């Protein structure tokens, strides 16, 4: 039986596209993480810390709820 996806969904990929197609590497550099971590978040395989979530929202100039949604 497979592992259930985390109950947190995100719009990181969509927000990157609307931010002049920001790359995963660009976002990673701006928030102090690796590109692989951004990939894992976008694929729903990793949920960021609260601090990282706020940093991501800040990069895009949106509220944290515009980036992450709880599916619990």
Structural topology:
Layout lengths: L7 E3 L1 H7 L5 H8 L3 H8 L7 H11 L3 H4 E3 L2
Antiparallel strand pairs: 1-2
Helix pairs in contact: 2-3
Biggest sheet character: 2 strands, antiparallel
Please tell me what the overall shape is. Answer: globular
Give the helix level as a range of percent.
40-55%
The helix tally amounts to 5
Helix/sheet category: mainly alpha
Q: Count the E strands.
A: 2
Q: What's the end-to-end separation, in Å? A: 20 Å
Q: Which residues form runs of ≥5 with pLDDT under 50?
A: none
Keywords: DNA-binding
Domain HTH cro/C1-type: 12-67
InterPro entries: Cro/C1-type_HTH (IPR001387), Lambda_DNA-bd_dom_sf (IPR010982)
Protein name: Helix-turn-helix transcriptional regulator
What is this entry, summarized?
With about 70 residues, the chain is mostly helical. It contains five helices and two strands.
Tell me about this structure.
InterPro entries: Cro/C1-type_HTH (IPR001387), Lambda_DNA-bd_dom_sf (IPR010982). This is Helix-turn-helix transcriptional regulator. Residues 12-67 form the HTH cro/C1-type domain. Pfam families: HTH_3 (PF01381). Keywords: DNA-binding. This protein has 72 residues and is mostly helical. The chain has a single domain, classed as 434 Repressor (Amino-terminal Domain). It is built from five helices and two strands. A two-stranded antiparallel ribbon has the order 1-2. The protein is globular, with a radius of gyration of 12 Å.
């Amino acid at each position: 039986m497979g592992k259930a996806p985390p109950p947190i969904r995100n719009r990181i990929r969509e927000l990157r596209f609307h931010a002049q197609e920001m790359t995963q590497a660009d976002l990673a550099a701006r928030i102090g993480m690796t590109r692989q971590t951004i990939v894992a978040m976008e694929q729903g395989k990793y949920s960021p810390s609260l601090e990282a979530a706020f940093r991501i929202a800040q990069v895009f100039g949106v509220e944290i709820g515009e980036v992450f949604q709880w599916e619990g």
